[in-house]
Amino acid sequence: MKRRNIDPRPDWRERVERMGLIWHSNGAEPYWDESRYYALNAAEVARIERATETAYALLLEAGERVVNDPVLMKHFGIPEYCHGAVRHAWYSEPPALNFGRFDFGLDPQGTPKLFEFNCDTPTSMIEAAVVQWEWKEQCFPHLDQLNSLHERLIERWRELRPRLTGNRLWFTHDADPSHEDTITTTYLRDLAEEAGIVTQAILINDIGVDAHGRIVDLDDHLISAIFKLYPWEWIVDETYGPDIVRHLSETAWIEPIWKMIWSNKAILEVLWQMFPGHPNLLAASSDRRAIGDSYVAKPFLAREGANIEIVEDDAVVARSGGKYVDGKTLYQQRCYTPDFDGHYPVLGAWIVDGAAAGLGIREDGLITGNGARFVPHVIVDDGD
Description:
Helix content: 25-40%
Structural class: alpha+beta
Largest sheet: 5 strands, antiparallel
Strand order of the largest sheet: 6-5-18-19-20
Radius of gyration: 21 Å
Shape: globular
């Protein structure tokens, strides 16, 4: 994998805004950074796709173990009143996009190593699916890109359409100041409409509960199916959480409640216990002593690189702040990823219903936080 410099397009801001990427800069610094790009060859792309689909297969086995073990679910921090609902959703397979973004690092041998799986509220989607493709078409029309995310999501919505009551689907998210959740939810809503689904928007705080405990919108209409970009661990912690869980048979939530398992970093510990030494996994444990003197400490439940600590030979070399300080901590073997002048790429490998679907690369310092930059990529011949 090579990192190359390139002159940004003079009108890049206007171009990405037209495609919906409103939050393209972090103050004076770009978030979408087309002053450079990554060049991968076919063999590297094949390794990433293989690792993506392999990790998904491993998670299926790990999920099966967790849903049948109340002790493990308690270890994950899943409230006891949710255990039955999680298990039922796992086996009954309610409507789901069944999508997500694996975050991989590359070890010195070029092997993808799983950092975590963002599958409940994954973002950086529109930039991976359409913005970097448009950049490639203009700057490198003769080259390819690891990118079928847009088409696969539309096809998945088409498959789900017959399962939605009245062919209607609500879309919800938090009113986030950066509008990242708004952009992501709107993009997925557009794809659903392209697939023939009737959609309606509602903010998460505007969802209500009627006298029977059913989930309703501002007009007191029963919400029969809803896509949410809001974490399940937050939903079940709300005052209306028990009502939502109690009425899952009347309101289909996309993604389903079983995503609480895969989106929890405790799943990395289960994966390592079940598949020790797997080439795409890093040693992980909630017991720091099991990992050694060099590791990455991360909360079971956290977002955007918050509350991460990187330790080398018992010395802290990087630390991030944040609000996720009260939960359990996972300790993961440190992966020594490529260093491009202090920029460390993380490979965001997308999957849709078990099939590898695209790649988005973000780079930052040792910790990939909310200030990381999204850098596009292309596939090149070995001689390029």
